[in-house]
Each structure stands twice: as structure tokens, then as C-alpha cells.
Amino acid sequence: MRLLVLGGGGREHALIRCLARSPLVSALLAAPGNGGIADQAHCVNADPTDLEAMVDLARAEAVSLVVVGPEAPLAAGLVDAMEEHGIAAFGPSRRAARLETSKVYAKRVMRKYGIPTADFRVFDDAPSALAHLADATYPRVVKADGLAGGKGVYVCPDALSAREAVEAIMLGRRHGEAGRQVVVEECLMGEEASLMAVTDGEAVLTLPAARDYKRALDDDRGPNTGGMGAYSPAEALDARTEQEVVRTIVVPAIHAMSREGHPFKGVLYAGLMLTRAGPRALEFNVRFGDPETQAVLSRLRSDLAEILVATCEHRLGSVEPAWDTRPAVCVVMASQGYPGEVSTGHPVEGLAEAEAMADVAVYHAGTRRADGRILTSGGRVLGVTALGEDRDLARRRAYEACERIHFEGASYRRDVGLRTPGPLQGTRRGGIRGGPPRAPPKA
Fold first, then answer.
1. Is residue 362 included in any domain, yes or no?
2. 334 & 280 share domain
């Protein structure tokens, strides 16, 4: 099989490393890829949201399966375009992807189908939202409707911060068109967790538990980011709680999309709050998480290509993947200033020394190759990931590997792998518990 992976981050590097081990895969392509991905795949400098260009690339290269990493191509309808031309693609259709691309749509689906979630209101204009917030109890959560790179959620402890959030989103257009509508919801109390599940629309296969770190600085301080690290497995979801999440949130969401006429295929990532009253859905993503995927797939011992193909062929129920029982910890090394403006083009040194360590993998996110060297090219640069007999050993290995890598302005959290549950929602946290249960979505 010839596979095309769309995206150029750490998640896509983890996917490609797993796919490169598969005896089913004869060739790997990536668009656009990055400096690390280029070691195992032919990188094509192309925009994965350019549907015509991606279809032409897949046809020219006789691609058997397209694997979509990030959300933007899904929002653009990449899977629809591929399937219209007879090319298999792993991921949901554009309409099914609205579970992530529109928080308004997702919340209304949850309400319609009885999926437990926070109480909410939707506003189309700033004056109405501000009037509501003037009389609200606090804390409240304000969310931009559309895609905002993980930065469109504001936990507001008081009326002033809520007003500032609405004005920034709807009047200041901080997130562009994503802020045309806002969701204002109650702030749930508990511990955050996530559940990633692969589904072909019928069978549901949960992935190993993970927890990520959204804030830029130690002790969950600083601004939200795309993710500064993750570990797997995560203890927040025990087997009983996971089964409840699958039964009350994941399966009903998949069934809801079928009822809505938009069957869901791919990865459903449920952001959760584990409250005293039971699990509640905060939001959905419709693709593998980043950096959770780096930690989770480091533990996969089965053939990832087989899982993806089985999903597209609607026979996922026959697949039973095997996982390494050892924990994994992923530490994101970022450019100075991330998630704000960063300086790029700095040489990255020490990669070979880090990867020579036992049970260490370095996933590239924001890198490029130039004149035989690896240079920084973005905010999140690397995902340094290690396995260990226990999580403490895994995190010590990951941080030892980080110390061997150098580039100008390198920064990273020092507390990844330490369990630091927060009392409030507002930052999506990591991944999910492994293996079965696998359940068909039934009415």
C-alpha cells in the first residue's frame, strides 16, 4: 500500500513512524511533512487544505489510503473529496467534522441526543452575550464557535474577565471568523480527562489513556497552547468510568451523527470533565490529539495501518491491538515566546544523542531541513517521548533526552508526568484508556 499522511506536526510524525513499521505499507508520502518526517516519508510541499491539489497528488502517486492528521483539512472536506474520486481516506466527512469545527453545533447535538454536558447558551452578537453575562453567576466559560487552534476557550472567574473574553472574540475578532458566535456555559467542577476512540461508525475501539498539559508554564500557569506534553496511561479514567463514558457519551455521539445523516468514521476525541455527578462532555475533536498521540502511539505494538484500513473498510470489530504496558511521557520542546510570536530558523543540535537513548523517540513538530541541518520552523518544535517501567522513570528519561537537545530559545515545562488535576474546565487535557470495551452504537 502507498499511504499519504496529511499534516506536518508531531502527531503526524508519530503516525508515520508507526506506519513505517507496517508490512502492509510499501511507500509513505506526507504533505507538507517536516524535517523529521522526511527521514521516513517523501515530503511534498503542499497545502493539505487545497482539496484539488491533494486529490491530484493522491491520484498521481497511486495512493491507497489518505490519513488526515489535523482538523483544517477535515473542515475543508478533504475526506469527501477523496472518496468522490474513489480514494480511501481515514477521517470524518466535512459534515461529521462539525462536531469539532463548530462548538455551537456540537453542543446542540449533545442537547438533542441527551449526551451529558454543561448547560449553555449560544449568542450571535456581543450585546446579547454581554447582557447575559452581566446577570450570570460565576465562574463561566466563554468559547468561540469555530476552530481557534486550541486557544478559543476562556475560563472566566468574574464578570470583568467574561466581558473581556466576549469583546476579544466577537468585537476584536481575535479568532477571526471562528468568533462569529460564542457559547457561554456553566463551569463544571472536577478533573479533566479525554477519551480517544477509533470508530468505523459501528465498532468503537478506545485508545490507551493519556493526559495532556495545555498551559504554557509549570503548575498550569500561563496561556493556553496546543499542548506542552502528555503521558499515557492516565489514572483519571478507571475501567468502570471509561465504560460509562463510552456508554453515555462516545457511542451516543457516534449514533447521533448517523441519525443526523452524517455517519462518523475516524477518531472521536471526547474532552471530558469527571464531576461528582458523573462524566460530562466538554467538547469533541474529530482527529488524533496532539501531543497525546505521541505518548499513546509510542506504546502501540500492533500494526497501525491494519487499524486504519479496517476502519475505512468497516471491519474494525475484527481488530484487537496490542499495547506496551509501560508508561510513556512526552515533553514538548518549544520556541521561546510560544504560544505568541516566535523566532525560527535556529539549528537544532543533539538529536542523534537523544534518540540513541534506550526507549526514547523524538517526534518533530516545527522543524525543517536546510543544507543538511535541522532548523526550527514553528512554536512547538519537538515532542521528546520516553517509555519506562513506571511513569517516574519514563519522565526522567524524557527530561534527560531534552537536556541533550539544544536550540536557541528552547523552553519546556518541567512538570510533565506529574499528576496535577485542576478544579476547573477550560484547558483540554489528554487521551484514553486502552483496549476494549468495543461497543456498537445502538439506539
1. yes
2. no
Together in a domain, 253 and 200:
yes
Cα–Cα distance for residue pair 244/250, rounded to 1 Å: 9
Phi (first) and psi of residue 182, to 5 degrees:
-130, 150
Radius of gyration in angstroms for the set of CA atoms belonging to the chain, rounded to a whole number: 21
Q: How far apart are CA 417 and CA 396, in angstroms?
A: 9
Contact between residue 387 and residue 359 where contact means Cβ atoms under 8 Å apart: yes
Q: How confident is the model at residue 420 (pLDDT cuts 50, 70, 90)?
A: low
Residue 422 and residue 215: Cα distance in Å, rounded?
Answer: 11
What is the tally of structural domains in the chain?
A: 4
Instruction: List b or e across 359-385, with b for residues whose CB sees 16 or more CB atoms inside 10 angstroms.
Output: bbbbbbbbbbbeeeebbbbbbbbbbbb
Q: 223 pLDDT band (50/70/90 cuts)?
A: confident
Cα(306)–Cα(287) distance, rounded to whole angstroms? 18
Per the document, the length of the chain is 443
Angstrom distance (rounded) from CA 226 to CA 215: 9
**Cα–Cα nearest to 425, from 245, 273, 292:** 273
Q: What is the pLDDT of residues 104-121, one digit of tens each?
A: 999 999 999 999 999 999
Tens digits of residue pLDDT in 275-300:
999 999 999 999 999 999 999 999 99
Same domain, 295 and 354: no
Q: Are 153 and 224 in contact (CB under 8 A)?
A: yes
pTM of the model: 0.90
**Letter string b/e over residues 50-85, b meaning 16 or more CB atoms within 10 A of that residue's CB:** ebeebbebbeeeebbbbbbbbbbbbbbbbbbbbeee
Residue-number span of the structural domain to which 59 is assigned: 2-91
Q: Is residue 417 part of a domain?
A: no
pLDDT tens string 130-176 = 999 999 999 999 999 999 877 788 989 999 999 999 999 999 999 99
**Rounded distance, CA 290 to CA 288, Å?**
7
- What does the pLDDT look like over 403-419, one tens digit per residue? 999 999 999 999 999 86
Query: What residue type is assigned to position 294 of the chain?
Result: Q
pLDDT in tens, 201-218: 999 999 987 888 988 999
Query: Rounded to 5 degrees, what are φ and ψ at 55?
Result: -65, -45
Q: Are residues 205 and 265 in the same domain?
A: yes
Q: How far apart are CA 211 and CA 230, in angstroms?
A: 5
